[in-house]
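Person: Show me a sequence?

Helper:
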Amino acid sequence: MNYELRIIMIPISDNIQSWKKPIITYWLIGINLGIFCWELKLDASNQLSSFVNSWGIIPEQTNAAITNAIFYNSAAWIVVFWRLISLPLALFLHSSFSQILGNLIFLWVFGKTIERVLGQQRYLLIYLVAGIFTGIVQIFMEPKLSVAVIGANGAIASILGAYIMKFPQAKIYSILPLIIVFIPVEIPAFLYLFWWFVQQLFYGIGSLNISGGVANLGYWGQFAGLVTGAAFMRMVQRR
């Protein structure tokens, strides 16, 4: 599998019509782009590594802080609190151009429809809660991981899970770029469930200069986000 395979299927819209403006989706995309531009500025001044290591999720440090607070020093709960703050903040950090581009494309195509279905408050709630939950899963599944985990992958996975639960038969308008010819096609939404996991393998393309490296959310974390989104949509449907 190579880089060319990654770009042969690009979602651009779906066939679910609505006149409501996806305000929260606009804001999420804008915030992510704004922070990424700030990351580029920090990268140019060699300050990005310190920034990411301060605000990214580092499971080893978080687990060490919790252990120290429970068994040795109760004052260490301040450190635990500081590390837990990184859970929501890490959602808005990205380590490469390919990661932020892939996340924002999926957020736009699937997120705007889910926002219209759930409403602004519940949509933002599931985005943040699922993103934080997947970070917690990452901490427990890889307790010895010593590099920062950043990105909105878990939150986007929850949006995709909610979408598939609500619109399993929806068609996604996509383009297949072949050299200089862009071929428009309709692809079943369910296929993008598989494609989402495939594209995670290519998120290192266009990486920023972060010493020590960063890690993408593990597949178990993304699966947790997917299940969270689907379960939330199922609960809304039943109510």
Q: What stands out?
A: The first helix runs from residue 3 to 6. The two ends are 43 Å apart (CA to CA). The beta strands are 10-14, 148-149, 171-178, 181-188, 214-215.
